[in-house]
Specification:
Blueprint lengths: L7 H4 L3 E2 L5 E6 L1 H7 L17 H4 L2 E6 L12 E6 L7 H4 L1 E13 L6 H8 L7 H10 L3 E16 H8 L9 E4 L1 H10 L6 E2 L3
Parallel strand pairs: 1-8, 2-4
Antiparallel strand pairs: 2-7, 3-6, 4-5, 5-6
């Protein structure tokens, strides 16, 4: 395995875990597996995956309005959490599926117009023009650009994230920071810990 350089793209798929923050970020089922095809669940129809830029690229752009994502910085690590489908109990259907590394976070006010925002976000995003217009009109949206480093070999359901990893049931699960210990437990249980490296 090669040494960590500190450049996310050169190091891919290795992840530098030294001096980085780790977060959990939720994503709705309707976007999850189209955008992160290697993380599709065994219960899902594989035909939803199409041969387009956002499925094939290691780069992904996710758009949301959660205030807390302002905290994200280059090199931060994100555990993707696929929320439960409507009508299903989150305890055993909401799952942690993937690990990504943050390249950049752009705020809506950094774009001069919707066209500028659309040009940036559409290349690596599952969101179509209608979706992106919706988020832009909503105001305060953020475009998170990430590298898609690993699909967990073993997905971790919400119940196990709480009971075995130690995440708080009562917290807001849209976005929150993980401790180093929690992240390491997730990586081990998801069987992706071999790509984690410490530069120090």
């Amino acid at each position: 395995m090669k040494r960590i350089t500190g450049d996310i793209n050169i190091d891919f798929p290795l992840i530098d875990i030294s001096n980085t923050k780790k977060y959990l970020l939720s994503i709705y089922p309707k976007y999850h597996s189209i955008m992160f095809p290697d993380s599709i669940l065994t219960t899902e129809n594989k035909n939803i995956i199409t041969d387009v830029s956002y499925t094939n690229s290691i780069h992904k752009i996710y758009v949301c309005t959660m205030e807390q994502v302002n905290e994200l910085k280059y090199g931060d690590i994100v555990v993707l959490y696929r929320t439960a489908e409507k009508g299903r109990n989150a305890e055993y259907s909401a799952v942690a599926t993937s690990i990504c590394v943050v390249e950049d976070v752009k705020m809506q006010n950094e774009f001069s117009s919707f066209e500028d925002f659309y040009k940036y976000a559409s290349k690596y995003s599952v969101f179509d023009q209608k979706d992106l217009r919706y988020w832009y009109n909503k105001g305060g949206c953020k475009a998170i650009k990430m590298t898609y480093n690993a699909a967990m070999k073993r997905r971790i359901v919400r119940h196990d994230l709480i009971e075995e990893i130690g995440l708080e049931r009562s917290q807001y699960w849209g976005f929150f920071e993980l401790t180093d210990e929690q992240f390491q437990k997730i990586a081990r249980k998801g069987n992706v810990n071999k790509i984690l490296k410490n530069k120090n």
